[in-house]
Design brief:
Strand content: under 5%
Low-confidence stretches: none
Structural class: mainly alpha
Number of strands: 0
Distance between the termini: 61 Å
Helix content: over 70%
Number of helices: 8
């Protein structure tokens, strides 16, 4: 029975006429798996470093963040690949605008809600596309290729701006970034003895 079922499923997976639809399904699967792999360790570290509460509350927060990231990425990949396949089916060919339009719709529907998870993902992508667009502009000749490596100047501006914002306009930064920078730059100004100078960041709460 099981062998027959596996044979039927494998035969279906080899059917060329179903390939576009099956790619959408596998895209959903890969989005869910990748989202969980990325978010779970990040949420684990950030929760135990910066969040207070009981162990149960911390693990609940980790599970919720992991689920949200995994679900959203799965929904987006499903929507993007589905809309792209639909446009190709309607027009009979693939064109670059299909990718842009499908991703715009998916981004609006899935990542348009302003919450911590979506904010982190969107900002992560923003930094990547700015790099990508800069390289593309050089490749296409829209801007001249720099004679010297611009990366040191880029690094200087990034760190100069982010620390200026942190010190004087902290509320404008994303909460997780505020937490990280508070740990690095504010908490290092406070200690009472060797225990919270080298061993701990802050004195353990007295019981």
């Amino acid at each position: 029975m099981l062998k027959t079922l596996l044979y039927t499923v494998n035969s279906l997976l080899q059917q060329q006429k179903y390939r576009a639809a099956l790619a959408v399904v596998k895209g959903f699967r890969n989005g869910a798996v990748y989202g969980a792999k990325i978010r779970a360790p990040h949420a684990l570290v950030m929760t135990f470093l910066f969040k207070s509460g009981s162990l149960r509350e911390k693990f609940k927060a980790i599970a919720q963040a992991t689920y949200t990231h995994s679900r959203n990425l799965a929904y987006f990949v499903f929507t993007y690949k589905g809309l792209r396949a639909l446009q190709s089916q309607i027009q009979g060919k693939k064109i670059p605008f299909h990718s842009f339009l499908a991703a715009c719709i998916g981004g609006w529907l899935v990542f348009g809600e302003n919450n911590n998870i979506n904010s982190q993902i969107n900002m992560y992508l923003l930094s990547r596309i700015l790099f990508g667009l800069s390289r593309l502009a050089v490749e296409k000749g829209y801007i001249p290729e720099p004679k010297q490596d611009p990366f040191p100047l880029f690094a200087a501006l990034v760190w100069g701006i982010v620390l200026w914002l942190f010190e004087y306009h902290r509320h404008t930064l994303q909460p997780s970034l505020q937490s990280s920078m508070t740990y690095l730059y504010d908490d290092s100004n406070v200690w009472h003895d060797v225990s919270d100078f080298l061993v701990y960041n802050k004195r353990p709460a007295s019981k």
